Structures are given as structure tokens and as C-alpha cells.
Amino acid sequence: MSISVVVADDQREVLEGLEMLLGVHDDIVVVGLARDGAEAVELTASTRPDVVVMDIRMPGMDGIQATRLIVEQGADRATVTTVLVLTTFDHDDALYGALRAGASGYMLKDAAPSRLPDAIRQVAAGESWIDPSVAGKVIETLRETAPRDDHGLPSLDALSPRELEVLTLMGDAPSNKDLAQQLFVSEATVKTHISRLLMKTGSAERSQLVALAYKSGLVQP
Question: Disulfide check for 34: which of 2, 8, 58, 92 has CB 3.0–4.6 Å away?
């Protein structure tokens, strides 16, 4: 089964280059090219791709805002669109802004082109992908900068209704298969929701999300 992809970048030569790069892979199909964030959101709504490869700095709506809208629009679908940010910027505002907005991956453009298809496959499968050159900094900083409530727990304000539902169901520590059956979605979609929960709450592992579900009062002992 092929992975459908929309690519968003304000430079035409980059769009054409990425389309050619991905076109040689039988399991990846580029279904749309966008020159800015607004066009990326529109294309995603009309084509419902598996993955959007998103630049950050674009005229009009930037990649962070577009990522947030794409994630929100697809939150309740049985299969979600994941966003892989592909950018030249590795500074903190771009990096954490994209991940907090719901991006499942972050890759720098100077990385080896051969790694992009693998990154696309990984986020399409519901996993996270973070460029190794910034991975350590990302994990530590997400943990340190996650918004906290008055009790010192990670704030749930940034979570979508669907993510709150997933976090609540995780209180019983079900498997991904069980969660998928309860939510009527694919296991890859469950993995995507959990990856976003980890990033938004600054949690390092699944068990911390289960603990958060109880400590925050979403689940009663």
C-alpha cells in the first residue's frame, strides 16, 4: 500500500526536486504541491494524504500555523494526516513551535536526501522522527518547557478533544490494538495520537502518560 504525500515549500525548485526524489520510490506517491501554508491546508483537506512534508518559513500562513490546522482538522478521522517538517531552521522557536503544533517529525534540509523517504515511512506508521542532530536537545527541552498547571503537572490545555479522549482511555493501560478498537481507528493513528501526547506534555514514555491521566483527574482510581 502506497503512502500519499503533499509537499509544501515556497521555492518551486525545492518542490520539483522533492517530487523527483520521492517519485522513484514505489511506495510513496506525491499527490499535491503547495507554495504556502494556506494551500497546504486546502490540499490536505481535499486529498487527505498520509503525510505532509512541510516547510516552516513560507509567505502568508507559515508552516507552524498550517501544521496546527491540519492536525486539528484531522483529529477525529479514522486515519490522520501526519506532518513531517523539512526546514533549514534548527533554532528553538521553529523546532518547538512545530512539535507543539502537532508535527510528528522534524528534519533538516541539509540531511542526506536518502533519509527523507525513511522519515516519511516512519511518521506514516505513527512513529516520531526527529533529526539526530537536534534529537537530544529536543527531548530535554520539551520536557523542561512543557506548560504546567497549578499542581506542577503538565497542562492539558493544549490537547485537542481527541487527544484528551486518548489520554483518558490510556488510564487502563490498554494496548495500541485495544485503543484502536475502542476509538474505531487504525493502530498507526493511535501511535500518532500518543506521539503527539508525549511531545505536548513533555513526557518521556507511555507510562508517564498513564500516570498523568490519573494525577490530572481524567481517570479515577
Answer: 8
